[in-house]
Write a structure and sequence with these properties.
This protein has 15 helices and 8 strands. The chain is an alpha+beta fold. It has one domain. It has an 8-stranded mixed β-sheet with strand order 1-4-2-3-7-6-8-5. Helix 5 crosses helix 10, helix 5 packs across helix 15 and helix 12 runs parallel beside helix 13. The longest helix is centred in the middle third of the chain and has 22 residues.
Length: about 425
């Protein structure tokens, strides 16, 4: 069997996947996450620790495009906004800072290499965590290879295909679909119609708590549907797949890829923000358009407001033909307006009213750390392949999705499909 033939088998693909996994870099710095106001000594320690851990793993700074995930575990009261934290640490990871140390390009050479950025905000509700900044990073081409593997799994596209395996894999996916298709609207309707009976049997407190729970479940269901699922990721990234590279300049293929990529924008919950500000005067226009689109969304989907469920933001962008988009600024333009207009709860406990609970339950849900009550839980910036007929200045799209589980992101979505498949082997 040739190597090419081996790579078309299940074991061949599993081996290639294993090689990609061990090349993923994970770094942890036990330090309270801070914004630009952190001291020079704190910045020096962070940079030094990143450099030290890379050296211990026998790794150098990345020179090609990457996917980067950052988790901020805060413990101090009133931590900085998530986009403020990211601005600080993205700079610390690559910029030359002679007033602090002699290092530069520590994790990557330039932030234009970051094609997918995932940032997660963790709150220390019980004062039991160690403050830290955790990073996970790998070469973008490995992530794209995993998406390509996910496509093979869904199609059962292996030379030694096992149809019993395909059946077991489909059963695992079906379990997830069942949960997502549960009709909480019907349960809410039954609850409201039987309000008097509920009040008599359980009391008004139970009725209010149950109604709040069902509304939150409805919101969670809606938000999860807005995620970039595996089929969406396959659609938008297929121009980068190994088998498609030779067709990249072909106009027919470009047209097909553009059509499949546009499927994600057909969702009524997908917002279009135009292009990112590039010249003087465009920033105010962009912000005005952004606020308008968010307000329209709020009016259109009244079931989501007031929000009882934490949210995550996904920003998709096609880069302009010439100028590079600054990821730091893109997040700082969008996130504050989302917080201002949507007022999302930072954590779900903030949506519980004291009147719902007994003293015992109040103690159970007591939150120790003080923090902004309204903030997104995480955000993702995803750069899409630029195709032939894309606007000269690029374009930006926007989705709000489930923010309750911090691991619900594009990286985890791909990994989950592969994990489910491997569990069936």
């Amino acid at each position: 069997m040739t190597r090419t033939e081996y790579l078309d088998t299940i074991n061949g693909q599993r081996y290639e996947r294993f090689k990609r996994i061990i090349k993923t870099v994970r770094l942890v710095v036990n330090q309270e996450p801070k914004g630009k106001n952190s001291s020079n000594e704190e910045k020096r320690i962070f940079r030094s620790e990143i450099r030290k851990q890379l050296k211990e793993q026998n790794r150098r700074a990345f020179r090609s495009d990457i996917i980067l995930e950052i988790d901020y575990f805060t413990t101090k009261d009133n931590p900085p906004a998530i986009q403020t934290l990211s601005k600080n640490y993205l700079d610390l990871l690559h910029k030359e800072m002679p007033h602090i140390d002699s290092l530069k390009g520590i994790l990557y050479k330039d932030d234009s290499q970051i094609k997918i950025l995932i940032c997660n905000y963790h709150i220390d509700e019980k004062s039991s965590k160690t403050p830290s900044i955790e990073l996970k990073v790998c070469n973008l081409r490995y992530f794209l290879a995993d998406i390509e593997l996910a496509q093979k799994i869904i199609r059962n596209d292996f030379t030694d295909s096992d149809y019993s395996l395909e059946s077991k894999f489909e059963e695992k996916l079906e379990e997830e679909r069942y949960y997502n298709n549960k009709d909480y609207f019907e349960e809410l309707k039954d609850l409201e119609e039987g309000k008097n009976d509920y009040d008599k049997l359980f009391g008004k407190r139970y009725y209010k708590m149950q109604k709040s729970f069902l509304i939150r479940q409805i919101q969670e269901q809606f938000l999860k549907q807005n995620n970039l699922d595996i089929r969406s990721l396959i659609s938008v990234f297929q121009p980068y797949f190994s088998n498609n590279k030779k067709y990249f300049s072909n106009s027919d293929f470009q047209s097909i890829w553009n059509g499949s990529r546009n499927l994600i924008s057909f969702s009524p919950a997908y917002l279009h923000f135009g292009n990112a500000p590039q010249v003087s005067g465009e920033k105010s226009i962009f912000k005005t358009n952004l606020k308008k689109e968010l307000q329209v969304f709020k009016e259109k989907f009244k079931v989501l407001f007031p929000l009882l469920h934490p949210i995550s933001v996904i920003v998709t962008f096609v880069p302009p033909k010439q100028k590079i988009i600054d990821l730091d600024n893109l997040a700082r333009y969008i996130v504050p307006f989302v917080n201002e207009i949507f007022n999302p709860p930072t954590i779900v406990q903030l949506t519980y009213k004291d009147s719902y609970f007994t003293d015992l339950l109040k103690n159970e849900y007591e939150i120790t750390q003080r923090f902004p009550p309204n903030s997104i839980a995480s955000y993702q910036l995803v750069q899409l392949p630029r195709l032939k007929n894309d606007p000269q200045n690029g374009k930006i799209g926007f989705l709000i999705t489930d923010g309750f589980y911090h691991m619900n992101n594009v990286w985890r979505t791909v990994d989950e499909i592969i994990y489910k498949w491997e569990d069936c082997l």
